Structures are given as C-alpha cells and as structure tokens.
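Good morning,

Both structures are done.
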Amino acid sequence: MSKKIYKTPGVYIEEVSAFPNSVVGVPTAVPAFIGYTPQANHGGNDCTFVPTKIASFMEFERIFCFPNSLDPVQQYSPQYYLVRENAKPTTGDFLLIGSDYYSIVPDAYTIYYMYNSVKLFYQNGGGEAYIVSVGGYGNASGTAVQVGAPLVNPNIQLADLLKGLSALKKEKEPTMYICPEATLLSIAENGTLMQQMLMQNNEMQTAISIFDVIGGNRENPLGNDVDIEAFRSHTGTTGLSYGAAYYPFVGTAIMGMHDLDYTNLFGGDVRGLVTVFSSLRLPEENTLELLKSIYNSESSQSVSENHRTLLAISATYKDIISAVLKVANILPASGGMAGVITMVDNSRGVWKAPANVSMAGVATLPIKIDSIEQEGLNVDAMSGKSINALRIFPGMGIMIWGARTLDGNSNDWRYVNVRRTMIYIEQSCKNACKSFVFESNDANIWLRIQRMIENFLNDLWRQGGLAGATPKDAFFVSCGLGTTMTTNDILNGQLIVNIGVAVTRPAEFIVITFSQQQVVSS
C-alpha cells in the first residue's frame, strides 16, 4: 500500500481491509434447456436462439408461452388418432371402447417435450434456469404414424438444436445442458447432437449434459438392449465424464383432464369421434348430438365448455381422454432430473449423489427394470458407458437408482457427484483468482492465494463435501517458487497453483457379511 502524502493539517481516516479475499462458490444447479417453445418474446423482442435466464415457471410462461385469454390457450397441442384394430394390439398403446380395440398413435409432427419438461423441472424443486428457444412449433402432418414405428418429429431440426447449443458457449453460469427433444431426432442425428454437447462440455468445463435414451418410452419388441446399444454406439468417446444418461422415460401427471380435449383428436376433426361413438353397440345419443353440433358449428359453447360437458355426460369420452393423456404424459426423464439435482444441491450439497430419491410428479414407468437388467446398464465392460436406471421398489415407489457418468470405467470420473463437485471447486477457485491477474508474482501473492483457497476448501470439508478425518487428509494447496513454479514460469508471467482434493464418493455397493457364531458356554 503506497503511503499518502498529506499537505493540509487535519484529521484523516483511512479504512484498511480486515478480511482477505475469499473464494465464493459458484452456483451448482443452473440448467440450460434447449428446445422448441410456443413463442419467444422477451419485452417485445424476439429472443429465439438467445439464452434467457428465468427464475420460475411463471416467468417461463410470460416469455415463452402464448398469452391466455378467457378461453385458455393450449401451450402444447399434440395430436392423436384412434386407429381401429381387428384384434387386441400386441405393440403400442391402445384402449378398449365398447367391444373394439383402438391403437393410440400420434401425429409425430406435433410431439414436443420442452414445455412439459420445464414444468417437470419446477415440480421437482427447480430454481434459476436458462432457456434457449430454437423456434416455435411446426405444422401438423394430418396423419398418424404407423403403429409401432419409431417416434421421429421432422419439424425438429438438428441444425436448430446445434445452433441453440452453440449460443451457450458465451454463458458460463449454466451447469447442466438438457435437450429433451433430442430423442425426437433420428438415432444418427441424436448421436451427432450428443457428441457436440459433450465436446462443448469438455471444452468449457463448466457443465454436464443430461441425456435420455431413444426408445425409453416403450418396450422394444426386439429387446430393450437394442435401444441401449444404439445409444452407446452414438455418444462418441470425447468428454464422457461430462455426460450422464437416465433410462427409461417417466409416466408423469403433468397434463390433466382439462389440458387436452377433442381438438387434440383426429387432427381436430370431430367426425373421427362421431365415427367412434356411432360404432358403439349402444350409441350415446346425447354425446353424438353434441359432437355433431360442434362439427356443424351449432354449439354456442366454447371449446373448454364443450369439453367439460362431454366429460360430464360420457364415460366413454372420459376414458378416451384419460388413455390419450397417459400416452402424452410419458416424458424424457432429463427435465425432472435437473430438478432433482437442484433439490439435492440445495438441501445437501453438490457432493451428494442425486440418487436414492424419488422424482415428484411421476406415477409410472413405461419400462420396468429389475436388478438383472440393471447390471448391463450400470456396468458395461466394453464401452464403460453407464446408464442410470429409474426403478420401482415395493413400498418405496419410483426411485433414481444410479449415479454414474458415461465414463463408467474411469476411477476418477465414474460418479456424477464427483464430476460436478470438481466443476464447482475448479470454477470457484478460477473466478476468485481473477482478482490477482497482473498483480506482482511474488511470495506475498502466493501466500494470499494459498490461504484463500485453503479457507474455501476447509469450509467445504466441514460441510461434508470432502473426505478425510482432518483437513490435511482432505486437501492440499501449494503455490511458490521451487514447489509449483520455476524461474522461467515467473519470467513468462505464469502463476501456478496446485490443488489436491479428496472428493466423497457414493457407497454404491453396500456389502453386509453375516457369519454364524458358535454358542460359547458360560
């Protein structure tokens, strides 16, 4: 501190800092969602492909959803068709109406996951997040996909999602990348997107990517291993420690009886419902009369009023809507996982594995996994690409039963919480050291930096974030000439700090050994 020169007699006060610089922990749970939204209007400006920070679902609705009127607007309007079958279907979703079976098949051009995934994120404890809208919804095709065919939405473009991903390169705050609609691409294009996400994570070292597995929405007649192997063979080999995959999809309760109506059936053509109800052995006359008046534009009620009336007078209509909702509510798990990770970080810490907890708003799983099947998901000797399972346990419900990254064969980066804890430590220390750039590279600065980082790590150890009985066992920090730097390093303007930490790892396999003890006479 330079000495001030005083020229005028008087009393002067000088404030001296009582506390040294400190490391402030960076936020650990800030997901970035990339996908399609109803609109993208922030304060009258188009924010398509602009990472926009929100703090609540209400804020998401204000910026990225259609304004609501007296008759509520459907923010997400998928289209489904009821296809009459000659016999009970062996694949796909179906329902029994009267004595006839109908397959429930979507118009693939109308299926999107972004809106409901953001809602699932906030149901599970989500907080601040970034939204990267890559455009609005495309036009419907007016036809149903073939029963049992893969669900691919041609309106979802790989180029759009890659452009949205690239927009995040300038944002350092997001710690998770989520792209729920990636599973609506072809397998090859989904692989390209996943590889680009991992490469960007590996380059920036600030975030992980949470992936879903194509095919996780239904049992594969050829075996679920086909979908798993397709996923593993398309994720590449770069940045695997920055990725985590979850399987299967989840059956949620996001959408309710008043979120879908007859306009979501048969492309909005009420004649399809008229045909279904006319084929009943005992036709519901009141229902048919109302449906025909809707088709002929003779009904004086709004869509929502007609829908409520149909629910009240027709048990069959209610069954149809319930069955379609069950299909529409099957979502990729990534949005909910982002919420769970946020909740775990806030309640326990980034070092706690986001596993052995349930996901709110999830009622069913479309694929049931047992211990034998999970063996092949959790440990893969060939690729090492672990996939975390969501499973149903009696008396416990649906649990997240895995905490591994895609780098499952690595001793260093096998676990999600280890990778995320290291990101937290690295970025926090990096930000704190920026204040020393262009300072004199001498012993005084080395000591200040060392003490600053040691204080940060000591606090982390006291909270349970580092392993070890004592701070000495948990971490070390070294900085100085002859220890971390040479004279040439100093001449080249390099200040090198070595940090070692013992990050806590989850007790993934708890083995209890029992033995019989012989009776000993007293």
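Second structure follows.
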Amino acid sequence: MAKTNDKKTEKEIKKESHYDASSIQVLEGLEPVRRRPGMYIGTTGPDGLHHLITEIFDNSRDEAMNGFCDHIEVVLLPGNRVRITDNGRGIPVDIHKQTKVSALETIMTVLHAGGKFGGEDTGYKASGGLHGVGASVVNALSIYMKVIVHKDGFAYMQEYSKGKVKAAVKKIGKTTNHGTVVNFEPDAEIFKEGITFDFNRVVSHMRQQAYLVKGLRITAIDAREVKEKFADKEIFYFSEYEIEAPSQSFCFEGGLLSLVKFYNQFQKPIHKNVFYVEKKATGVESVEISLQYVDDISSRILAFANNIENPEGGTHVTGFKASLTRSLNNYAKKNNLTKDSEDNFTGDDALEGLTAVVSVKLREIQFEGQTKAKLGSVEARGAVEEVFGEAFNAFLEENPDDARAIVSKVILALKARKAAKAAKDSILRKGALEGMTLPGKLADCQSKDASESELIIVEGDSAGGTAKMGRDRKIQAILPLRGKILNVERARLDKMLDSEQIKNLVVALGAAIGDTFDIEKLRYHKIIIATDADVDGAHIRTLLLTLFYRYFKPLIVGGHICIAQPPLYKVKIGKEVHYFYSEEEKTAYFKKAKISDTEVEEAESVEVAVEENVEEAETKKGPKVAVQRYKGLGEMNAEELWETTMDPSRRMMKRVSIDDAQEADKIFDMLMGTDVPSRKAFIQSNARLANIDI
C-alpha cells in the first residue's frame, strides 16, 4: 500500500486523543444558562421570551398565594423593557451566611438559591418555584436588570447585566412601600428571533392567574408608547398615576367558579348552578374544583398545580375523572335513571360537554418532566377523589334539577357513543378507515414515505383538475372537496361519518378518527389546505380547521397542517412576469418601477378569467402592462399553480399552530357554535380587520 502525505503524525494523533483533567471545562456563575438557555426556558423563540415575564411574575404570585401580597403590576416599557411590581414582603437584603453577600444578590446571581426550599420556615405553604432558578435565569438572559426592594422603611437597589453584578446593593432612600420592583431587558444576542413582547399574550396569562388566586389584583399596562420618564424610586405602581396607555386589571373573588363562567360565556349551560368546592385534604394544602356542563360535545378540563398549568394533566386530573364517573353512575342507579348494567357510564360519557378547572396546592410537589406539564405527586389523586367526591355527591343531592339535567346529558352521550361505535365499526369492517379502499377523487402520490408526502386539499373539481396536472406526482397527493363540508363543531362522530366529504378525508389520511386515531399511521406528514381567496374559500378553510381542531388536534400540535398562499395578482410588464400575494405588495412594486397612478389604474382595469384572454394596456413609457386578478385556484393553469403555490422550493405557506389552546377553543365555540349574539358582537368588533374581496 502506497504511503500518502496526508497521514497524521504520531504527535498529532496523541494531541487529538489527549483527555485529562485539563480537558474538563467548569462553567461558573450563570454562564451555563447563557450557553444552554433552552434547558431553562424551553426555547429562545417567542415562548421563551414571554417565559421570562412568567418567571419573575411567579415569584410575586407565590407571595400572594401565601397571603403576603394583594396587587401585582406588569408593565411593558419602551426599549423592550419589562417592569414587575408587587407589594409583598420584599426580597431580603441582609448578608447571606453562606455566600457572604446580600441575600438579594444571592437570589439574583446564584442558581438554586431561593426561599422555597425551607417550607413553613419561610412562610411558603405552596409555591410554583421548585428549584430556585427563576430570577437568576432571567437575570442571566437579560442585557439589563435592576431590582429595587422596598423593605423596613428603606428602598434598596442593585443592577446587573448578563447575570453579573454591576455594583453592590445600596440603600437609595426612605419609603413607605413594601415589596419588590424588577426591571429587565432581554438580551437580543440570546433571543435572535426578536425581543418584542405581545401585550395580548401577557394579558391572557395574567387574567388566568387572577382567577387562580382569589382576591389578587393583577394589572397589565402597555406603556411602550409613553413618553414620560419616571424615576423608579419615586413611583411604585404605574397604575396609581394617570398614564395614557392600554391597560387591563383583573381581580376575581369567585376564583375558579369565575373562570368556568368565563370559558362558558359563549356556551349554553344545561344546568343553573355552577359546582364549586375548595377544601384542605390529607397531604394537600388545598383542592379547588369548579365545573359546569354545557350543550356541547367537547370537554374542557384545565388543570393546575401550585398555579402552574398542567396541559398534560396528571394525578389530580386522574383522581377527578375517576370520582366524577363514579359519582354520576351511583346517582343514576340510586334514582333509577338508567335501565340496566350495560348503561354504566364510561369516563368519556361523563366528560362530554364538561367545562372543569382542577387546581391543587401542595407543599412538596413533583412534576413529570422538566416542563411541569404533568403532575406526578401521588397524594394529589387521593386528595382530589376525597374532596371532590364528597362535595359533588352533596351537590347532586341538594340540586335535583341540576343533577337530572347532568345525568340526562351523560345518558345522551352514552347513546351517541354506542351509535358512533356502530357506525365506525361498520366502516372498519368495510376496510375504509384502514386505507384498503382510497376515495375515488383522491389522486394519490407515488411515494409511500409519509415524511416526504403531502396531501393538498383543494376546493372543487376545477382546481382539483389543475392541481393534478401541475403537481409533483412523486410526493403530492390531491383531494378535491365538493362544496362546503359539514360544520363539526356540534356534530357527533356517527353524523360526521355519514358525510361523504369528511369520510373521504378521514380515509385519505389513513390514521382513523376518535379513540382509534393513530398518528403513526398518518399517510402524509404535511396536509395543505388550498382554497380560493374569497369568502367561500375562507369559510371552507374555517370548516376544515374546525374539523382538524376538534377531531385531529395532534395534527395541529405536530405542525402537520398548513395553509397555502396563492398569489392575488399576475402582472406582465413586457416579457417579465411577476406574482404578488397582496395589494400592498403589488402597489409597492408599481411605485418602485415608476409606473404612474393613471397607468396602474388602466392596467388594473383589465381583469379576466384565463391567461390567453388577458388584454394588454400600453403605458406611456412603452412596455405593455397586463394585470390578472386571481379569484380562484381554478383560474390558474397548471404551470402557474405549480410555480406559485405548489413548488416546495418557491411557494409560501402558513403553518397552523395553537399558541393558546384555551383561546382557540373559545374562538371556535363563538364562530362555529350556536351563540349568535356573541358571534355577531365578535364580527362587529373585528370587521375593520377583515380583508373583504368585492
């Protein structure tokens, strides 16, 4: 074998394989947070950015939860700064024995330092903070941070940058206030997607938290446009001054009962009284539950542990569901409301149409996973079953009209479940949902690899024919829909499966539906909704999104649903062809190309259906300008549709996501449900935002 000049020397190999104590790197202070921010806040995108507010707010909320604070204020300031104020006890400023510096500096600059580890000794019976990393993490990820503590008649201040102290804690004057004021500005080097906060998102979170802590007042102010300068030591709460800025304030004495009413505001309750209980139990500081059934087929259960939302539920939700089903079965049998043993309610029967909020507060709390999405504390299940079971049984006995309405609703769900099972079994026996018989209108793709395959749902046979000719046959399947599909917001599964359009879609996806849905069997990892840019197209798109949200939510959560963005205009200037996706984009181009308003108007007056009939308007400068306004996908030829809407390398699409599941749920209830007055009010309030094609 011939030797080569590229062969590494023995010295080079030894150097590369060198591994001893000097190879071990120790990150000091808050440097680990800056190196791996995702470990502490999940992401450096918008979710992580807003999580910074949550971390600081949670410290103030824990003060309120334990009775030391009754007003928290969150202010968005100019320059992407945030200011959070509470009237709690104020962070301690005396010297910490272990660190030999102020307790304030210790909390803000040392990971796993805080007042939540000592239990009752610190006054915290329950808290959301488990690891003592919240404030220090925000500090590490901020280019600027200043904390002012009002305590024992004096105000103290310390400033930081990127987690490092700029100067020692200093006394800045006398004060009659008590509490903590935290100012911070996120570091743009960390949050590369932007550091602009969404005020509506902040407000939504604050509203929810106000429901969870009865009597706590939370004020949110968007002061980013305020020109006045305020000295921190001179102002405690912005809301005490007349500032012209958007603001919202929340305070709910009803707690979770008020929250259930809020989520049901666009629903029709089937019973008058809203159930509510709050009680201490063995091993748990507090169990608080509220529920109400509404005339709907969906269920909504919101779960919280120490005021931290648990979207994946946990032991407290397991205990609640078991106790709810048992109580309803016992009441129905005791009062002879069901005929035989086969009519036992299942958990799904008991949940239909239910809106419930389950909240527990524990001294020692355990979550499954880093994100706290699921509660793992074993004692929570027994405590919830005990407290809720006793209180709900009493509620049913004391409110017989409400009880019969609830049981009747559950019996209806039981009958519907049996009917849906029969309908689904019938289809399964024929092999439809197993993908053995694909719908005739589906033009399937050649690839069997779901990860590269796309299902493009188009409106009507005309667009379907064009899309089939223009597609990439290897990876793109086309499914044309005939007209508008069934509104599934209030349709049960058996009625849905009677709809040919929905059945075709379910069969094409190949992952079944309802309790048999299996995302692993999904035949296409990208489902693209491609409808016309008119009112009917928007309605069909909304109906499809309602179907996906109610019955295929994992597809949305997994990022599988997209909306195509076809162009509105095709503009031909001489031999050049340009596509524009909005009126503003087209106008800006004409301005840049120095085409006069008269010429633009003359060109825009030419609107036709097909390419070969486009007339040409002569401009004063010589080149011919022709403008075609697309009113539907069927107006494009196959080449145009491929270039603008279907070519993966050039097309524009919007991925459908659920940033706030509860808010999305509320909007779908309002827009697609039966509450006409609420829908009318929503349309009137948002009419100015609509882009109407006349």
